[in-house]
Design brief:
Number of helices: 20
Strand content: 15-25%
Distance between the termini: 44 Å
Number of strands: 18
Largest sheet: 13 strands, antiparallel
Shape: globular
Number of domains: 2
Radius of gyration: 23 Å
Structural class: alpha+beta
């Protein structure tokens, strides 16, 4: 279909926001192009966008500058991330969208989580011996592929909150796929990390290993197949995936993965066309807790993000963190996180299949019971047992049985945050799960299929101890995605979110504590060194965190496992003078990209 260019040119957007345009079409690996500049902090008016990628931020800003609202810009930026972050998000995945509507003052969410095929039972990830399949074997397979939720999420968001059509908001992503983006170190490294998997599937190797080699830093990576997919969605709507020819191709790819000649076979998928036709992206009530006089909204089950962040904040509410020394704040944060994760693992799953005691998990009484287990100077032995959210709250009751960690979750995913001049806010986390998803590209379509079903718990069913996250027909696997919006007196104060598997929850929680309790600038809170305690014997911690706090916290009984980095957050804050602050990572995942329509540090 014919396309028109977006209203702002890439060059104009670069001048306004500090985000440079991608290199010219036709650049070759032998002629390196400077990568777009990444700006982690921007202040101004007219709207703000923060993503992990400068091209996606640019596309979102162009939509805002052309008169679109935050919902339009969020979908446009998400489509651009499908081009430049294809290993983290795209048409073959899903996600969660949290929306603040300035006209109504209401917060609404869209559940775009993938669903299990109706042929999938509780034993789907068990071998013939009844033991869990090796995780790597399950990930790189058709068996891990759930019904994609992203396209219907985009359409639902535009129908409910947007002002533009799907075709209009896909223009920026389509042009980006055709013209290409400049390969940076992060994209090359992620490709290298997946090289062995991609070589197992002919279309993945052809797309992501052009000429049989890793893409060079400074080369321009084009994806005309994805441009064609976006044009198909623009012309025919999302029904082309859920009841049309694109869906037929997705199902065929999942059922019969296109394994390369000589490569080892992989497990076939269970996805059927009827699963696509039955898929819905429902509106859900958000989670809500009050914290320091603010209203914190998040994503309800099947995400565990809103409930776990909310419960941890409730536990922290009883401590005056603003007056405590830094190490005391971090100690308390780690302990509250462990308690909330114990309850997450015990009780949270898809509410259509599991009775989730959400109101009790987020109640003040339950938080008080859990908070009484936090010693102000000494870490509890991990894992800590789950609480008993039964409504009968008293002083420090006996806890329930210990819980496991819920199994591994992929470290990938991506998050974007958008606000417009009218005060609407979008906080959107989207994913294909593992970095590289299932590793399987739909032939001729330019996108990877998710491995989201590996978020289910790999364990035999135990009738004596119900597990809320076992596979089931049509079920949505538990997620840790935690897109968050914070209101002050009914008006937006900030929004934030992050990728990172289960560390998403702790990244959002630590960012909120740094910003709301310690008074850090939002960009500084996002850049701060991180640790993630998920009710395990050891907490993950970045080198900078260990250098600054490791010795003192270890002396209190905490144990740490060093990791290179945790999360890759983005956020937007409404400043008291009416300006917007957009913030992204300065270093993690190669650095993020924050921009505003009309810059003005003032």
């Amino acid at each position: 279909m014919p396309r028109r260019r977006t209203v702002l040119t890439a060059l104009t957007a670069a001048v306004l926001t500090g985000v440079a345009p991608a290199g010219p079409a036709g650049a070759t690996p032998g002629h390196a192009v400077p990568p777009p500049e990444k700006v982690p902090r921007a202040v101004g008016t007219g709207g703000a966008v923060a993503t992990v990628d400068p091209d996606a931020t640019r596309v979102g800003l162009e939509v805002l500058a052309a008169g679109g609202n935050a919902a339009d810009a969020a979908v446009a930026a998400a489509a651009a991330l499908g081009v430049t972050e294809p290993y983290s998000a795209g048409v073959g995945g899903g996600g969660f969208f949290v929306w603040f509507d300035a006209a109504t003052g209401e917060v609404t969410t869209v559940d775009g989580r993938e669903t299990a095929p109706r042929a999938m039972g509780a034993d789907a990830f068990l071998g013939e011996d009844g033991e869990p399949l090796p995780f790597r074997e399950a990930v790189t397979s058709g068996l891990s592929v759930g019904t994609p939720g992203t396209p219907l999420t985009w359409q639902r968001v535009l129908d409910e909150f947007g002002t533009l059509s799907l075709g209009e908001v896909l223009q920026g992503g389509t042009e980006l796929a055709e013209e290409g983006f400049v390969v940076d170190e992060t994209f090359r490294r992620q490709t290298a990390d997946n090289e062995e998997r991609f070589r197992r599937f002919t279309p993945s190797a052809e797309l992501f290993l052009p000429g049989g080699a890793l893409p060079e830093v400074g080369s321009v990576f084009r994806n005309p197949d994805l441009a064609g997919t976006y044009e198909l969605l623009a012309a025919k709507g999302v029904d082309v995936l859920y009841t049309g020819e694109l869906g037929e191709e997705v199902v065929r790819t999942a059922q019969e993965p296109p394994v390369a000649d000589g490569a080892a076979p992989v497990l076939a998928g269970l996805l059927e066309e009827s699963d696509l036709a039955a898929y819905e992206a429902p509106l859900r009530e958000p989670t809500r807790v009050e914290y320091r006089g603010l209203e914190v909204y998040g994503m309800a089950p099947p995400s565990s993000g809103g409930s776990t962040v909310g419960e941890a904040l409730n536990v922290l509410q009883g401590s005056d963190l603003a007056t405590l020394p830094e190490v005391d704040v971090l100690h308390t944060y780690l302990e509250a996180s462990a308690l909330a994760f114990a309850d997450r693992n015990a009780y949270v799953g898809d509410p259509a299949y599991t009775q989730v005691p959400l109101a009790e998990l987020l109640s003040d009484g339950f938080a008080a019971e859990r908070a009484c287990l936090v010693d102000p100077v000494r870490a509890a032995a991990k894992p800590v047992p789950a609480g008993v959210p039964d409504g009968g709250y008293g002083p420090c009751p006996a806890p329930a049985a210990p819980t496991d960690d819920g199994g591994p979750e992929g470290p990938s995913t991506t998050h974007l945050t958008v606000a417009d001049a009218a005060g609407n806010v979008a906080s959107y986390t989207l994913t294909i799960e593992q970095t590289g998803g299932s590793g399987i590209t739909v032939p001729g379509r330019g996108f990877l299929l998710n491995n989201e079903l590996t978020d289910f718990t790999f364990a035999p069913a135990d009738p004596t101890r119900p597990e809320p996250n076992l596979p089931a027909p049509g079920k949505r696997p538990r997620s840790s995605m935690a897109p968050t919006v914070v209101l002050q007196d009914g008006e937006p104060l900030l929004a934030v979110g992050s990728p990172g598997g289960a560390t998403i929850i702790t990244t959002v929680l630590q960012t909120l504590v740094d910003r709301l309790d310690r008074g850090a600038d939002l960009a500084d809170a996002i850049a701060a060194p991180r640790a993630s305690q998920r009710n395990s014997a050891t907490a993950d911690a970045e080198p900078a965190f260990l250098d600054a706090y490791g010795a003192e916290l270890t002396a209190r009984g905490h144990a740490f496992a060093p990791v290179d980095e945790i999360g890759a957050a983005t956020g937007v804050e409404f400043l008291p003078d009416g300006r917007l602050l957009a913030a992204a990572e300065a270093v993690r995942r190669g650095g993020g990209s924050a921009g505003v329509v009309h810059p003005g540090e003032g």
